[in-house]
Fold this protein.
Amino acid sequence: MFKTYRHAELSPAAIFGEPSTRHWQFIELVLHHPWFYVELVRDHGDDIVGSMLMIPTVPILQQMLSELDERSWFAQAHLMSPGHMRGGSDWVMEPLEEVSIAEDASGTIEGYIYKVASGACYSTNHSPLRDKLKVREIIFSAERDLRVRQ
């Protein structure tokens, strides 16, 4: 989850458009857990506008995918992964190809598998049997879920 602070809130929010929205100078990520940086494109009829979303978890990504329609779509998606997921120390942003629910040989759900454009696969599962995980369900697929911005 992302954390916000009152002193970082920009005001008045109404100068940016919708009075019901709030704007922040910065946000904080407390947990060192992967998250997604996704372009949401909206077709307003007379204008097509894209904005970038910072999505903190797979369930929220899945929920947002279910809410897309012919007038709103994802144009690009990136995985932001902490170093410990890749055996390093720095955060890295990579184009996202796929997010899947992973299960072990007995069918027990063991977390998620993240596949990026380079072909590398990462998992939040730290078990020594991590390489034996199987895909139970594909939550996100760039081929299926991304549309070219027109």
